[in-house]
Design the sequence.
């Protein structure tokens, strides 16, 4: 049973059937998909240095635009402690730059939340809450966050956090997955967002 099946429990079966296939990561399995981001947007211009710095960690990037090609690779493996982990590689192909938004997920079975370590090396940690909508969409919301500095993890006050809302659906008519990501800060408002569609690679 995958970490996503465990965290959603019986609700996993309420996901659209294509989303069930998408999130059924067996040990050693790899999910590959490609598509286009209809829009990638950012917050205030004064945040540009922060996004530029985030490039070093494959976490944030300053580029924005429309109709941007991208790929997703999800790889499942078991670490040395016997914990299932899912590596997320999201790659965005801008006209002059290729940017990444990478993460490593695992499950906290005591609290039943997904642990999300963002960046490479990890720079930010977030608890993720997974739910299923009445329409069978997957909804993900970030909760408590910590700054990761080597082996130290420092809790971030709420007003420093970038709280993400992710919605993933499957469009039966167009036969594509659709993804929407919005990251907001309590003080600034919208910090980063993208929305697009993708299909499984043959």
Sequence:
């Amino acid at each position: 049973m995958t970490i996503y099946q465990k965290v959603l429990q019986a609700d996993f079966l309420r996901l659209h059937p294509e989303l069930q296939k998408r999130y059924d990561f067996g040990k050693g399995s790899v999910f590959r998909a490609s598509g286009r981001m209809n829009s990638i947007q950012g917050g205030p211009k004064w945040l540009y240095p922060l996004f530029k710095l985030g490039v070093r960690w494959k976490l944030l990037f300053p580029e924005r635009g429309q109709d941007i090609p991208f790929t997703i690779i999800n790889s499942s493996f078991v670490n040395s402690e016997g914990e299932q982990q899912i590596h997320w590689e999201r790659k965005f192909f801008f006209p002059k730059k290729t940017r990444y938004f990478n993460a490593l997920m695992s499950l906290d079975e005591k609290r039943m939340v997904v642990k999300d370590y963002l960046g490479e090396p990890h720079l930010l940690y977030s608890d993720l809450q997974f739910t299923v909508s009445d329409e069978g969409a997957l909804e993900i919301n970030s909760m408590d966050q910590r700054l990761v500095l080597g082996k130290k993890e420092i809790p971030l006050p709420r007003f420093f956090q970038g709280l993400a809302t992710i919605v993933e659906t499957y469009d039966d008519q167009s036969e594509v997955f659709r993804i929407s990501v919005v990251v907001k800060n309590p003080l600034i408002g919208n910090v980063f967002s993208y929305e697009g569609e993708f299909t499984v690679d043959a």
